[in-house]
Fold this sequence. Notes:
The protein is of the alpha+beta class. Helix content is 20%, strand content 41%. The model has no long low-confidence stretch (mean pLDDT 95).
Amino acid sequence: MSDSFSFTKPKWDIIKDKKLLETPIFSLYQRELIPDKETTPASFYVLDAPDWINILALTKNREIVLVEQYRAGIDESSLEIPGGMVDEGESPMVSAKRELLEETGYQSKKWTKLGQTSANAAIMNNYTHIYLAEECVKVDEQNLEGNEDIAVHILELDHFLELVKESTIHHSIVVAAVAHLLLHDKT
C-alpha cells in the first residue's frame, strides 16, 4: 500500500475463528470479532482463498487477448482477460506467465505489474494481482486443465474498452484491471 494515505481504523480482534467448510478453491470461516472500543463481538463469514492473477495481454499491434468461458455463478458465458489462481509456492508473476500460456498459448517478454485489487473485501481475504503483458505472441496451443473450456478472442483494444463500457464485459476484476490499465496509460 501507498504511504500517501494513513488509515485511521485499527484492526479488530479475532476472538474465534471456526472453519465451516473446505473446498478445493476456498474455505469458509465464521469469525467472531470485537470492533475497536466495543465489548460485544460481531459474527462475520470469510471466504479464505488463494490470491488470483489477471493479465491484460496485448499483442504487438496492441490488440487484446481475451478468454471466453462459461461461469457457473451467473450461469452464462463471460468474456474476460486471462487469469487464475496463484498456486501454492508460486509467485504471482510466475502464475501470470503460466496462466497466460496455458489458457491462450500466448507469451510475453515484457511484463509490468499494474497493481492489485480485492474482489470483495467484506467477505474475501485474497487479492488479485493485475499484470500487463505487452508484445504477446502465440507460441503454442492451449493447455487447458480439468474441465476448462476456453475460447480465445483477439480484439482491438478500443473495441474491448467499448465492450466494458456497455457492460458486455462485466466481470468486476476485469473492470478493475481496465482501470489500472487506463491509469497506467496516463503516466
